[in-house]
Amino acid sequence: MEKDSPCYRHFHLLIYLLSITAGVSKSTIEPCSGSDSCPALLGYTLYADLKLSEVAALFHVDPLAVLASNAFDPSFPDVADRILPAGLLLRVPTRCSCADGIRRSLSARYRTRPGDTLASIAGSVFGGLATPDQIREANGIPDPAALEVGRTLVVPLPCACFNLSDNFLPAIYLSYVVRAGDSVPSIAAMYSTTVTDIMNVNSLGSTAAINPGDVLVIPLPACPSRFSNYASDFGMIVANGTYAITADNCVQCSCGPGNLNLYCTPASLSVSCSSMQCRSSSLIVGNITTKSTGAGCNVTSCNYSGFVNGSIVTKLTKSLQPRCPVQPQLPSLTPPPTTLMRDLFLAPTPLPLPPEAGGALPTPKPSPPKSPVSGELALPGVSPATGPDATAMVGGSASSMNRKEAILIFCSALSLLLAFALPSSDTSILLH
């Protein structure tokens, strides 16, 4: 194909249109004012095999907080050095701040390395949670092409607070990057929420159209705490199916999955802790006793009430309930994975079609190696000697077609694609 031919120009125009279309994505922006912040979660896909401690360092969070947000077992040996597989989707906790009138998480820092570009940092290292322009603006970079090695960048990441509620119920918002094959129903099923909630909070409209690269905020049901204003963990809220470590790693508070009541027990970590026993009782935090009577069930529980001035505050609660409560159901803790499980919501690979009646198909003879032809278009990584014969894709009678006819058909199809891809006002480009 000649470089000056219309067909050559059409081919590169189509590649350009596809590239700018793929680069356009949308995200939900929550306006804000003041300096308040809230807890939030980031849906982060690992770009490479990383230790759990490396993921935590990338987002400047405690490794225990990453474990808790994903219901991973914190007592697993050498858990901080556990290598997580590339492609794993994690929930990373963060603080959602108000920056320049919109919600952003500004805790992530990244030190540039040789070969880094703003596009690779945004799209690969941070899994599409940020855009190159956002990183450039946040760091005042005049020339993205002159990105010096060793510079520490602030990476602004999308997040939302929405008063930590969804339809007047407690919720934490997770920022999720849409992947190929996703739909609003599949995302809703993955995070145990509803299609309506996702559509409303992201202003998707009636079509619920999403594309890979879009960043949605997903409302996750949560358990709020009711600790004293003087507690260092005042305002703690835990997403359903996860837990939080607090009180100097001494207390573990879980949410669900049976109900949305926060339930705190002593943590399984080997640390020195202050007393967790309730006054005037032999019960410790998390203990519940029940006794059936003719009037109902007498329930006594020892509850965690916050971490104040280095001490664990407890509260003994007695109540008469119609029926005795069942033992609280805790999230199922698992070891951090080392291999990646295939996403269940993605369509399976089609099986080969069975052979039709009429006997076994003859084994095709290998084609002799071809010498490259001047002007022939070769795709990267596909050798003309081993790749499919271009004329075989045109039809059964194409074996006798010469090269010029094949190129003519290719150019005609390419022009037709461009006619659909370009706006009507730009179709004149095809005539030049």
UniProtKB/TrEMBL annotation:
Ranges annotated as spanning the membrane: none
UniProt-listed InterPro entries: LysM
Protein name: LysM domain-containing protein
Keyword flag Cell wall biogenesis/degradation: no
Signal peptide: 1-26
Keyword Signal: yes
Domain LysM: 108-155, 174-218
Top-level taxonomic group: Eukaryota
Coiled coil: none
Any matching Pfam family: LysM
Region annotation Disordered: where it falls in the sequence: 355-385
Alphabetically ordered keywords of this record: Signal
